[in-house]
Description:
This protein is an alpha+beta fold. It has 6 helices and 23 strands. The chain has 5 domains: about 40 residues, no CATH class; about 90 residues, conserved putative lor/sdh protein from methanococcus maripaludis s2 fold, CATH 2.40.420; about 90 residues, Beta Barrel (Elongation Factor Tu (Ef-tu), domain 3); about 55 residues, CATH 2.40.50.100; about 120 residues. The N terminus and C terminus are likely disordered.
Amino acid sequence: MKWKRFLAVDASRRILPGLNPSISIATLLGLAIALAGGCSRPPETKASQASAGPADGGTYEVARVELRTVERTITTTGSLLPLDRTPLSVIVPGRLSTIAVDLGSFVRQGEPIAQVDDSDYRLRVKQSEAAMWQARAQVGLPLEGDEDIVDVEGSSTVQEAKAVLGEARANRERIEALSDEGILSASELETATAAFKVASSRYAEALEQARTRVAQLQQRRAEYRIAQKQLADTLIVAPYDGAVQERLANVGEYLAVGAPVVTFVRTDPLRLRVEVSEREAPRVKIGQPVRVTLEGDTNVYFGAVKRLSPAIVEGSRTMVVEADVPSQGRLRPGTFARAGIVTTGDVPALTMPSEALVTFAGIEKVFVVQDGLAVEKRVTTGDRGPDWVEVVAGLKQGETVVRLPGSLQTGQKVTVLPVKGEDLTREARVVPGEGGTNAVNGGRAPAGS
């Protein structure tokens, strides 16, 4: 018996350390049962749960799903770029003497931008002009003049050689006749024949020299025009109406051929460059209108599709589309833009207010009211407008949806109020019935009333 009492005391110490060993295990078990009975509550009956009823979800407005004509658009993002971007460089080497623009300067086509020192080039023009005058004098033309038409046969050297040739020919013919009659010897005939040949070669040489002088005149004329062009190229002018995006040179700096002076851009219109998916690419055509919006700007800008890439980018499976958008003095190149390409206009579609749509974790849903209770419905949406969204699937024409559902949940009671300024025939209403209950009737009396 002693060993049994020892085991009981030892067990009580293991269960509750520090407890008086004199307290029996039976006492401990009774205390545990009593505590368990005091903490438990009787389960609620189904009748009590039913009497509580569904939770009250609040008061909401509803709107009817309507059929309207909409525009089919492809929404994408891209950047506004300058229509043309041109690095303006020097064509002739020299020291930059003046620069008339700076960052942001707007310049009209043909207006000066920068000037290279033209002192050397003016001297080259005078030098080439003098050489040209000399060549004109050699062919018998006046020093000044723009026409270089020369009659080679009429030049003085050719005329002289031609006269000598004619005399030699006549002398040979006369000696031949006298030689046939035996009056003159054969040696005199040979002398006349040799003189004729010399005169003939001198005439040919005179023609060649005259033609050479004409060619030299043309060369001097070309050198003169090149010198004039180099002088004109010392002045850098705007190739089109635009603005200076970047200034790259300073006054006094020596610039080699091709050294950039400024970066010039055409800012009106701007080039909108976006990408559309391979699936939507066949819908895009040249000439389709484009609506453009910017971050932080409430204005809508309009343009038109002008250029389409002939190929799909393999990496992204997209097609590059470019549209021209008038800047209107407010748009800047490099701006991020959202674009809507209108592919089709005036297409009937089911729509509902965009404020009725709830999106969570990629799932789109709306709430409708059935028998005074909120019921959740999943929908599939399409195009969107300023205050509406297209319903592709999930709802039918004439159904009503809850505006601004917020934290509304399925099964909650919904009290629906009329919408200000809207006809009851256009909005579904929950109106009080004679028995104090509500019914959704879309503006018609409840069935059986």
